[in-house]
Amino acid sequence: MNEHTSHGGNSARTLLWVVLALAAAALAYVTVFLAIPNNPLYSDRDAHGVSKYQFIEQCQDVVASAPEIQNLRSSLVESGQIQPGQDLHTSVALPSRDFVRGVQVLPQASWAVVTPVYVTPEGQDAPIMQIMARCTYDKAAGQTVAELRGS
To answer: Where would you find the membrane-spanning parts of this chain (predicted)?
Structure first.
């Protein structure tokens, strides 16, 4: 066995650490300067009051619990189209990518989106109707509001 150590191993190890540091720096650059700003859900929470992702989630929740949905449910029960204990479920009719692209910034620096929404009775697979929903984020009030119209 050779008792003398080679100095070539130290320079190779140093070169390896330099390569790893450069790779980490490149990954950080790609993430921070390229991937995040080009993410369709990226948003300036401070400027708009809420992130685009939170706005989308709130819009779907507000539409599902809107008084118009409860009024529609009552009308459908009265007409015999659904059972008295049957709830209605809502879902955005657009593919996710189109829904996210449809979210716009209003001049007041808050969010807005108009989207078709399917209304489906609980326990059924097929929607029985489609309505239009317009969601906006009221920055001053700190909440998302929805307006629904039948179509």
So the answer is: 15-36
Q: Which two tokens stand for residue 140?
A: 């001053």
Secondary structure in 3-state letters for the chain: CCCCCCCHHHHHHHHHHHHHHHHHHHHHHHHHHHHHHHCCCCCCHHHHCCCHHHHHHHHHHHHHCCHHHHHHHHHHHHCCCCCCCCCEEEEECCCHHHHHHHCEECCCCCEEEEEEEEEEECCCCCCCEEEEEEEEEECCCCEEEEEEEEC
Q: What tens digit of pLDDT does each residue of 92-125 get?
A: 999 989 999 999 988 876 899 999 999 999 999 9
Encode pLDDT of 19-38 as tens digits: 998 898 888 877 777 666 55
Amino acid at 94: L
In the chain, where the domains are located = 1-38, 45-150
- The tokens describing 103, both together, are 């979210």
Sign of the four-CA dihedral 93, 99, 105, 108: positive
Check pLDDT > 60 for residue 144. Answer: yes
- Of 49, 85, 70, the residue nearest 119 (C-alpha): 70
